[in-house]
Design brief:
It is a single chain. The protein has one domain: Transmembrane di-heme cytochromes, Chain C (Fumarate Reductase Cytochrome B subunit), CATH 1.20.950. The protein is mainly alpha-helical. Strands 1-4 form a two-stranded antiparallel sheet. It has a two-stranded antiparallel sheet with strand order 2-3. It is built from nine helices and four strands. α1 packs antiparallel against α3, α5 packs across α6 and α6 packs antiparallel against α8. The structure holds protoporphyrin IX containing FE. Protoporphyrin IX containing FE binds next to α1, α6, α8 and α9.
């Protein structure tokens, strides 16, 4: 058995990835403090409500009620940092050329399907991995677009008068608020899947997002 060290994530990517984590957590937390004051959304199926965002127990368990002002203060402070980090990350992806290993390419959707079959143990044929496999490419690109979407819908509901043209392009204040809310739910769903996938990928993969390098062991010349 032999081992080699492979460069995986450059320092700016690692820094911005980890800075994003507490910032997004803070945006979601402060968003909930605000949302509590006017909780209007629910999940409906054929006109029937199947889940109400959020049950009273959820708020009381987390100590959320009556913290609207605090929520607004935190949300309107951290949003600048979240946006700045996101813009810096997108700029770096473009300028460094790193976007090439992240964006989906021709045939990515087809290959992502193969990744899903492989991960569900339905197919034994391992799809090409590269730095990111095609399912990762699609999901990571989607989550970056969701970040941009959160900022844009956020602007639309933060300054609906000053940005009135923009707000109406998003369907008006109510729609923009709805879109902003569902993006937050999307982040929560991404986060849950992302953490499970990272755990399944193992310690070395996780470590590579901290150190930048991954240790690859090969057995008899085969990886
Ligand atoms: C405890 C929290 C988190 C952990 C442990 C974690 C871990 C990781 C790891 C290990 C990778 C590299 C995957 C690989 O090389 O196969 C990665 C990539 C990535 N993660 Fe996370 N992550 C976390 C939170 C987040 C959050 C909150 C977001 C955004 C909402 C996010 C977005 C991304 C993106 C976009 C990439 C690709 C980065 C690039 O190469 O440019 N992660 N994450």
């Amino acid at each position: 058995m032999s081992a080699r060290v492979e460069e995986k994530h450059r320092a700016p990517i690692r820094w911005m990835h980890w800075i994003n984590f507490p910032l997004l957590a803070m945006m979601m937390w402060s968003g909930l403090l605000i949302y509590w004051a006017n909780p209007v959304y629910s999940l409906r199926l054929f006109g029937r409500e199947i889940f109400y965002f959020f049950p009273a127990g959820f708020y009381s368990f987390l100590g959320i009620p009556y913290r609207l002002a605090e929520g607004m203060q935190l949300h309107f402070f951290f949003m600048w940092l979240f946006a700045a980090n996101g813009i810096a990350y997108a700029a770096y992806l473009i300028l460094s050329g790193e976007y090439r290993s992240l964006l989906p390419t021709v045939g990515s959707f087809k290959r992502a399907f193969r990744v899903a079959l492989y991960e569900l143990h339905i197919s034994k044929q391992k799809p090409p991995q590269g730095k990111y496999n095609d399912a990762q490419r699609i999901v990571y690109t989607l989550v970056i677009l969701m970040g941009a979407g959160s900022i844009l819908t956020g602007i639309a509901i933060y300054k609906p008068l000053q940005a009135s043209v923009f707000t109406s392009l998003l369907g008006g204040y109510e729609w923009a608020r709805w879109e902003h809310f569902w993006l937050m739910i999307g982040f929560a769903a991404f986060f849950a899947v992302h953490v499970v996938q990272v755990a399944l990928a193992g310690w070395r993969n996780f470590q590579s997002m901290i150190t930048g390098v991954e240790i690859i062991t090969t057995e008899g010349g085969q990886e």
